[in-house]
Amino acid sequence: ILLADDHPIFREGVRMMLSEDPAIEVVGQAGCGADALRLAIELRPDILLCDVSMPDIEGPEVVEACMKSGLKCRYILLTMHRYPELLRRSVALGVQGYVVKDGGADEVVTAVRSVAKGEEFFSPSVAGFLQKQAATKSPLQDDEVGIGSLTSAQRKVLRLVATDRTSKEIADALGLSVRTIENHRANICRKLGLHGTHSLVKFAFDHQSEL
Question: How far is CA 120 from the centre of its chain?
């Protein structure tokens, strides 16, 4: 197993639980998407267990890059969120597992064991979305909020927008140019269907707990 998660405490907890099973070996760990991709190609694990929200390259993008490189392994994505768009994207990629972290580290271990046997594992908390997709034979629709369609960088910007900071203040905080921040803001508004001068600030403030 290659374990990739940017939260060291969670990652170590999962590693310890996985290590209790003699049939499972954690061959490497990564704290960012770039390291996860590099180690996956280098170590060629049987399973890549990867967090969705990574500091640089997001989990689904890591999985997609691994697949394009020809890496033969199974994939499990970890997330804190249940956004339908995020689940839809993961299913479209063809991952074998999708685990919502509030199920605890033991659910992650169950997912690993299931996927190792050639089965699929999706957290019970998202099973309803999958059943709906199967029943309607149509792609999952994005949720009302639409935050699941945002990249990690866009969510970081949106969190700072919620504090009522200017684009320059956000740029200084993230070490980016003002132009880059303005582009992020424009792309966020496009994805969320927001229009008007203050709509982005209001949205960010109203949904702070979901960012």
Answer: 18
Cβ–Cβ < 8 Å for 206, 199: no
For residue range 84-102, list pLDDT tens digits in order.
667 777 777 889 999 988 8
* Cα 133 off chain centre by: 20
In DSSP terms, which residues pair with 60 in a beta bridge?
A: none
- Answering whether pTM is above 0.90, one says no
> Alpha-carbon distance 13 to 138, whole Å?
37
Q: What is the DSSP letter of 78?
A: E
Please, which residues have CB within 8 angstroms of residue 191's CB and are 6 or more apart in sequence? 146, 149, 150, 154
- Taking the C-alpha atoms of residue 128 and residue 79, their distance in angstroms, rounded to an integer, is 17
Please list the residues that pair with 77 across neighbouring strands. Answer: 50, 98
Decide the pairing of beta strands 97-100 and 28-30.
unpaired
Tell me the C-alpha to C-alpha distance, in Å, between residue 211 and each of 161, 177, 206.
11, 22, 10
